[in-house]
Backbone:
């Protein structure tokens, strides 16, 4: 097995390492789902995964394409309704970590997943809120995973779908949110965390081979760098092997042609 | 609870200009019913769905809808719904008015509708741009007991809710198994409930707490095997993830989309013929 790796793999392995064993995690689809399932298969076997389809404690063998693939229900501790998962689990404060991604993020970790351009006449209409604003508000803390570019890490969001630290320096806390807000943003350059006072995101760790200059060039605001910048280790080959195995199984499962064997003819 | 063909059920219960909720949270999506609405050329519908997906892309692209109430409109795990985007971004084939919520808001709105309440309540912290876009401050209230800030979300009460389910029994009671989303709330919030099912059985083998909709709530049931494809029906068939990926190419351009709809949905007399055309069934 090769030890070379790509940016997605570095991000996913780094994000997985942010999850502690036993945490209850509300998972978004895509990179968050890959990171959570990698964590569950490596250092955090007791990570409790909740997908917004109402699948609680699910242990998928392949990564789901959608938030509600049958695999999630078949391997769940229980499957609850949408009103229940959002009210009884999330709003009631039973979720430790919300794991999100978005089209745009600003320096205070506020997120846009609604539109690029004007809301009434958008240039690009994105899918919209989903459960992200609810998760960003109520999960005890939030992890965000996004590729860094001047188009996605912007000085000003086109639309604030989900609240991070709002304008920073305690504004979120004063608004009374039950959740603490974004703890880390994992990008393809490294990890950003909020400053203890201003809550502005700053680069605190960087991948081997990545540079501060390149990270700054990929950020739409003047990116601050922590006084002591950690250099992260290359992904553990064992983690990489598990991730690749998971992704290969996923690709095979999603490419499979479907045949439906119809039930016995309807009796009318 | 009359057992009708899907053609009769849609012809008899779905009229131009109505609000129609086709629910299903990635599972048990009533594709066959949506296709029949397209074949029968319904117009000016107000479509309601937490997660409008391909069937809504198709209904919107075929000109059935002028309004959409939703909380997430995309092709899950794949990307955009290009027909939905074309309607919002460029007004094609006609402008689409949108009313947008978060998942949690839409869930409480259905619950309120199902409970006969004018609104549902949830916790409220800071306004987002979505709250600002729809005048959210107006919907803030204080709890009369604790003073806690709450957001009031107006109830959703569709004229018609359409669901797909696994089974109907001889009496007309319907069983849903697996991921249920807000299907039960959407069913109970509606003035008229239509259901398509995979199969008819003598008795539902359902535990006491299963999701069963009693026959007297239902206006019509139609037996449509495979009626959720390319979505799925747990215990019957899996989600056709490959089709969801292929849809990205089919729907990207107006001409290819229209041709695909013509050659598949419109050219098929019913869902059974469509599944044969797609080589999903023998």
Residues:
């Amino acid at each position: 097995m090769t030890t070379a790796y790509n940016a997605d793999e570095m991000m996913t392995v780094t994000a997985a390492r942010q999850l502690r064993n036993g945490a209850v995690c509300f998972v978004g689809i895509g990179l968050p789902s890959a990171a959570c399932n990698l964590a569950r298969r490596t250092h955090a076997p007791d990570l409790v995964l909740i997908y917004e389809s109402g699948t609680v404690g699910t242990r998928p063998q392949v990564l789901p394409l959608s938030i509600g693939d049958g695999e999630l229900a078949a391997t769940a501790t229980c499957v609850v309704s949408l009103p229940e998962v959002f009210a009884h689990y999330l709003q009631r404060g039973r979720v430790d970590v919300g794991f999100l991604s978005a089209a745009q993020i600003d320096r205070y970790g506020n997120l846009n997943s609604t539109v690029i351009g004007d809301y009434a006449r958008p240039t690009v209409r994105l899918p919209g809120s989903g459960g992200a604003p609810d998760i960003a508000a109520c999960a005890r803390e939030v992890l965000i995973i996004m590729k860094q570019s001047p188009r996605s890490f912007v000085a000003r969001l086109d639309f604030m779908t989900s609240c991070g630290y709002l304008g920073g320096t305690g504004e979120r806390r004063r608004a009374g949110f039950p959740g603490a807000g974004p703890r880390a943003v994992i990008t393809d350059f490294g990890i950003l965390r909020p400053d203890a006072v201003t809550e502005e995101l700053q680069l605190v760790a960087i991948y081997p081979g990545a540079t501060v200059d390149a990270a700054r060039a990929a950020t739409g605001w003047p990116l601050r760098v922590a006084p002591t910048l950690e250099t992260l280790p290359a992904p553990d080959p064992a983690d990489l092997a598990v991730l690749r195995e998971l992704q290969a199984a996923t690709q095979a499962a999603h490419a499979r042609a479907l045949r439906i064997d119809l039930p016995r003819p309807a009796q009318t | 609870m009359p057992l009708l063909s899907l053609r009769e059920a849609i012809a008899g219960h779905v009229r131009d200009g109505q609000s129609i909720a086709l629910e299903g949270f990635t599972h048990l999506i009533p594709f066959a019913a949506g296709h029949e609405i397209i074949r029968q050329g319904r117009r000016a519908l107000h479509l309601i769905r937490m997660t409008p997906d391909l069937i809504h892309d198709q209904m919107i692209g075929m000109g059935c809808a002028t309004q959409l109430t939703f909380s997430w409109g995309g092709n899950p795990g794949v990307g955009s719904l290009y027909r939905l985007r074309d309607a919002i971004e460029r007004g094609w084939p006609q402008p689409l008015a949108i009313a947008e919520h978060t998942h949690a808001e839409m869930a409480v709105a259905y619950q309120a509708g199902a409970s006969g309440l004018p609104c549902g309540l949830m916790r409220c912290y800071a306004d987002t741009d979505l709250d600002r876009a729809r005048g959210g401050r107006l919907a803030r209230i204080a709890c009369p007991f604790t003073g806690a800030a709450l957001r009031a979300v107006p109830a959703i009460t569709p004229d018609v809710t359409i669901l797909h389910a696994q089974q109907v029994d001889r009496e007309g009671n319907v069983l849903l198994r697996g991921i249920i989303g807000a299907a039960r709330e959407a069913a109970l919030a509606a003035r008229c409930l239509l259901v398509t099912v995979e199969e008819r059985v003598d008795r539902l083998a359902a535990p006491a707490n299963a999701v069963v909709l009693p026959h007297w709530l239902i206006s019509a049931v139609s037996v449509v095997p495979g009626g959720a494809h390319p979505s799925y029906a747990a215990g019957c068939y899996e989600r056709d993830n490959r089709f969801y990926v292929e849809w990205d190419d089919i729907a990207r351009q107006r001409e290819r989309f229209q041709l695909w709809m013509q050659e598949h949905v419109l050219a098929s007399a019913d869902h059974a013929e469509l599944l044969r055309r797609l080589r999903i069934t023998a």
Notes: DSSP finds eight helices and 14 strands in chain A. The CA atoms of residues 170 and 199 of chain A lie 8 Å apart. Chain A touches chain B through 70 residues (CB under 8 Å).
